[in-house]
Amino acid sequence: MGTRISGIDIPKNKRGIIGLTCLYGINKSLAKKILKKVGIDENIKVINWSDEDISNIRKYISKNIKIEGELKSEIQLNIKNLMDIGCYRGTRHRKHLPLRGQKTKNNCRTRKGKKKTVANKKKVTK
Fold first, then answer.
1. Which cellular component appears as one GO term in the record (predicted)?
2. pTM for this one?
3. Contact 42/15 with Cβ under 8 angstroms?
């Protein structure tokens, strides 16, 4: 079993800076800052961390950084707030359309979902 931080297993055969990025909300630069604050070399593998190092990392993260569930719930709350106030971004969220200015005529399938074919009207013949 690997090291567990806030309910997530960190792979033990990776370097510390890469291992921490398995947590939702931590990228490489933030992982670098965390390890620097705690005083651990970023190139040391997770398997070589001492119990003290792991507890220091846990304490620092829980005290200073929002990760995993707390961060996800905050993001959802922000999106709900946008939808409630009825701003442009909120209405785009509600309609499941892209919100950052992308064209929607022939792209944005990720946001809109699977293609829905619409049948065209038949022409009346005389």
1. small ribosomal subunit
2. 0.74
3. yes
Q: What is the pLDDT of residues 2-57, one digit of tens each?
A: 688 888 899 989 999 999 999 999 999 999 999 999 999 989 999 999 999 999 99
> Which residues form the domain of 51?
3-64
Q: Which residue matches tokens 């490489």?
A: 28
User: Do the beta carbons of residue 40 and residue 57 sit within 8 Å?
Assistant: yes
Q: Exposed, middle or buried, 96 (CB in 10 Å: 0-12/13-18/19+)?
A: exposed
Please indicate, yes or no, whether residues 74 and 108 belong to a single structural domain of this protein. yes
Please say whether the beta carbons of 108 and 102 come within 8 A.
yes
Q: In whole angstroms, give the CA distance from residue 85 to residue 5.
A: 36
